Amino acid sequence: MTIKAFVFDAYGTLYDTHSVAAATEAAFPGHGDYITQVWRQKQLEYSWLRTAMGRWQDFRAVTRDSFEYTLATLGLTADPATVDRLVSAYDRLTPYPEAAEALRSLGPYRRAILSNGSQPMLDSLVRNSPLNGLLDMVISVDPKRVFKPHPHAYELIEERLGVAPEEVVFVSSNGFDIAGATSFGLRVARIERVPGDALRTELTGGPIGPAAMFKALRTQPERLGCAPAAVIRALTALPDLLGRGVFGRGVF
Amino acid sequence: MTIKAFVFDAYGTLYDTHSVAAATEAAFPGHGDYITQVWRQKQLEYSWLRTAMGRWQDFRAVTRDSFEYTLATLGLTADPATVDRLVSAYDRLTPYPEAAEALRSLGPYRRAILSNGSQPMLDSLVRNSPLNGLLDMVISVDPKRVFKPHPHAYELIEERLGVAPEEVVFVSSNGFDIAGATSFGLRVARIERVPGDALRTELTGGPIGPAAMFKALRTQPERLGCAPAAVIRALTALPDLLGRGVFGRGVF
């Protein structure tokens, strides 16, 4: 079977969600790190819980609700303009350093995003970034009214891009997404953003704060019975993966 | 409409999940607090993700997988007997101090548990505890092959206990469960195990460690569009709630 497309998760895979930290720290001095970590964690939780409950709302609403939850834990509130400004920080995330080069090198293939973000969030995100022009399609889960890792979300790849699941390499750093895509039948490359040994050093070398707790919860291989086909340490390793004719297990 | 039954969540509502901390600390000295918090958080995440993915496994398996994930973040492993022993700590949790008295005082009503725990886990949990004999029924989500907050889980109350949703007061400390039960149509009392002002003091008074992060993520009112009908600070407030003929908002 020939690979025809590379489909990428956005948040945490092509774009660094922690690039909101400067904005949260500027708005809430001394609390930026805590807010950034709890906000992202609750944003994910709300997407999973709304999917399980059958009460989908788009990712902009989920991002706003999780931000307000996070502020409330500190006894803080913010006026609507501040909330809007912070939430829209998700429209201006910084891509990972190697993302543009990796997308360029995959030019012969279809290149797309499949993300939980709402279509307007994703369109702004790409337009505001150096990845603009390097993607053939930016696909939001919006029309399915569920979030990844629900299988309906991954159906959009075939429906929108016209490629069969077995013709796709799906790339994500997010354990839940790796499990969901693998479970759906895609060939998945896990991009390892925090190596296990680096995390272990951080967890055993001193006090465990919000950033270390976030990494502990979010960056390590999940035990959900759906291991990825390959593990890479940089997106630029993707062409080599194909060049070797392999899509087996290993770190490239 | 007459209330006929009180249905309780088990983990965090009648029983304190942090009572596993002594066992984790004894097995992994110096890591007990971290392991206890991350384990419980991942246990919940795996239940939500497996529900969203349509890949249910019972809560014993989820509890084991999340425990092994947690150990792996520290670079630790454990032999199968140790894993079994730690996982079975969830069969011997300590009830909250007021739980038995509260159940006794609700004697005129049907009293049941509806929990994500597997039936064997729950049967052991109750049998090993002073709540044994104080419950008319212990209901696991097992037959539905989804976890709370999926609506199918809450259908079990009517199917097993023979009471309509509007005849039930459902009691939980867990935000996802409060949202799921409210969304399903039950009258929900939220038991507040960590008051907001206590959490704020903890988060702003010094370094934020694993226990504070857990409380920040898990104990405050969720923003999922499904607020509970009432908030209580002890389970023993439940008869008074009914006695007042109210099930409106407020802290009792």
SSE diagram, text form:
Two copies of one chain form a homodimer.
Chain A (H helix, E strand, L loop, with lengths): L4 E4 L6 E2 L4 H7 L4 H22 L5 H15 L6 H8 L6 E2 L3 H7 L4 E6 L3 H9 L9 E4 L10 H11 L6 E5 L2 H10 L2 E5 L4 H9 L5 H9 L11 E3 L5 H6 L9
Parallel strand pairs in A: 1-4, 1-6, 4-5, 6-7, 7-8
Antiparallel strand pairs in A: 2-3
Helix pairs in contact in A: 1-2, 2-3, 2-10, 3-4
Please describe the structure with a list of short key phrases separated by commas or semicolons.
two-stranded antiparallel ribbon; alpha/beta; globular; DNA polymerase, domain 1; 2 domains; disordered C terminus; 8 strands; six-stranded parallel β-sheet; homodimer; Rossmann fold
Folded structure, characterized:
2 copies of one chain form a homodimer. With 252 residues, chain A is an alpha/beta fold. Chain A has 2 domains: 5-16 and 98-243, HAD superfamily/HAD-like (Rossmann fold, 3-Layer(aba) Sandwich), CATH 3.40.50.1000; 18-90, Putative phosphatase, domain 2 (DNA polymerase, domain 1). Helices cover 45% and strands 12% of the residues of chain A. Chain A is built from 11 helices and 8 strands. In chain A, the strands form 2 sheets. Chain A has a 6-stranded parallel sheet with strand order 5-4-1-6-7-8, with helices on both faces. In chain A, strands 2-3 form a two-stranded antiparallel sheet. The longest helix of chain A has 22 residues, at 32-53. The model of chain A is unreliable at 248-252 (pLDDT under 50). Chains A and B meet through helix 2, helix 3, helix 8, helix 9 and helix 10 of A and helix 2, helix 3, helix 8, helix 9 and helix 10 of B.
